[in-house]
Amino acid sequence: MQLVLRGVPAPMLQYRVVRVTPDGRAHVVARPDLAWPEYRLALQYDGPDHLERARRMKDIDQDDQLRAMGWLVLRVMVSQLADPDALAERVLTELRARGWRP
C-alpha cells in the first residue's frame, strides 16, 4: 500500500510465474511477493530466514530461472522498508526502464 500511495501502479500479490516445460507441462517457477507481470518485474521481501544458506541457495536458483524468462527481481530487506520513498523510487525506476508510463 505504501508503494501505491507513492505512485507505483498496483502490483499483483503472490503472482504465479509459470514456465511450460518442453513436454507441455506447466511448472510454477516462483510466486513473488509483489509482481508487475506486464513488465516482468518482481519484488521479493527477504526476512531473516532468507539469510540461511539453504534458503539463500533456493532464492538464487529461483532468481536465475526468472532472469532467464526475462524477469527482473528486486530483493528487499526489512531495513529498506523503513524508507518507502526510496523503495518506491527504485520500483518506479525499474518499471519505467521496462516501458511503464503513468
Explain this structure:
- With 102 residues, this protein is an alpha+beta fold.
- It has a domain at 1-28 and 55-94.
- The protein is 37% helix and 25% strand.
- It contains 4 helices and 6 strands.
- It has helices at 2-5, 53-68, 78-81, 84-97, and strands spanning 12-13, 17-20, 26-30, 34-36, 41-46, 72-77.
- Strands 1-4-5-6 form a 4-stranded mixed β-sheet, sandwiched between helices. A two-stranded antiparallel sheet has the order 2-3.
- The longest helix is centred in the middle third of the chain and has 16 residues, at 53-68.
- It is globular and about 45 Å long.
- The mean pLDDT is 92.
- InterPro entries: DUF559, Restrct_endonuc-II-like.
- Residues 35-95 form the DUF559 domain.
- This is DUF559 domain-containing protein.
Instruction: Identify the strand order in the major beta sheet.
Output: 1-4-5-6
What is the general shape? globular
Main beta sheet:
4 strands, mixed
Q: How far do the termini sit from each other?
A: 17 Å
Percent of residues in helices: 25-40%
Structural class: alpha+beta
Strand content: 25-35%
Keywords:
DUF559; DUF559 domain-containing protein; alpha+beta; four-stranded mixed beta sheet; 102 residues; Restrct_endonuc-II-like; 37% helix; 25% strand
Q: How is the secondary structure organized here?
A:
Blueprint: H1 2-5, E1 12-13, E2 17-20, E3 26-30, E4 34-36, E5 41-46, H2 53-68, E6 72-77, H3 78-81, H4 84-97
